Each structure stands twice: as structure tokens, then as C-alpha cells.
Amino acid sequence: MADPAVVELADRIRALLGGDGEIEERAMFGSRAFLSDARTLVAALKAGPLLGRVPPAPAAALITEPGVSRAVMGARTMSDNWLDVSPEAVADDAALMGWIDLAREDAEGA
């Protein structure tokens, strides 16, 4: 059975993306990942955090924000621009959309 926090966050992401035909949704390691051109934009992780890949320049400033930390997957610390965002930091849809927009900006710059 899916983690309710994953389901709720994934539902919110899906609604904000509004059926964007270029976004693929995929189950990955107990999470729901949203991909563009096979690159993960954001993912709803177990227990509720949002995983996002953002452009390197704002990542350094964003890591200082409350509820934001460098992403860790198992024993591996991810690169500087992969960030975990607490549920509190994306409690409203405007904040969540801001993270989605940053992830899209990173994907477009790749």
C-alpha cells in the first residue's frame, strides 16, 4: 500500500502540472517521480518530502531556507543541486509550484 504522504503530494504535483503531456509519472523506490525527457524534475518521497533538482546557482541559496536540505538517498549524498524539501516548506500550492518551476528551469538548462 502506498504511503499516504506520497499519494497526497503526488496528487498535488499532478494537479499543478495540469496534465502536461510532456511529463511522465513513474513509481520509483516507493516514491512517485515526475520526469521530463527522462530526467527527474521532482518526486514525492516516502514520509512526505519533495525531492527536486534545481539549477546550481539558486541551490546554494535555497539550502539555507527552512525545511530545505541536500538530498540523501540511502548512504549516498546527492549532488549540490538535488534538494529535499520538507512538507511544511511546500504546504501551499504556490510554494510547491515554485519548486516545480525551478526543476523545469534546471531541466531546460541541461
Question: Can you put this structure into words, describing what you see?
Answer:
By secondary structure, the protein is an alpha+beta fold. The protein has one domain: Aspartate Aminotransferase, domain 1, CATH 3.90.1150. Helix content is 35%, strand content 30%. The protein is built from three helices and eight strands. The chain has helices at 4-17, 56-62, 93-109, and strands at residues 23-28, 31-36, 39-44, 50-53, 68-70, 72-73, 76-77, 82-85. The strands form two sheets. A six-stranded antiparallel sheet has the order 1-2-3-4-8-5. The longest helix has 17 residues, at 93-109. It starts with a helix and ends with a helix. The mean pLDDT is 90.
The strand count comes to 8
Q: Might you state the CATH topology name?
A: Aspartate Aminotransferase, domain 1
Stretches where pLDDT is under 50 for at least 5 consecutive residues are none
Describe the oligomeric state of these chains in a short phrase: single chain
Q: What is the name of the CATH architecture? A: Alpha-Beta Complex
- Coarse morphology: globular
Mean pLDDT: 90
The CATH class turns out to be Alpha Beta
The number of distinct helices, counting runs of at least 4 residues, comes to 3
Order of adjacent strands in the largest pleated sheet:
1-2-3-4-8-5
Structural class: alpha+beta
Beta content: 25-35%
Radius of gyration: 13 Å
**Into which percent range does the helicity of residues fall?**
25-40%
Question: What is the domain total for the residues?
Answer: 1
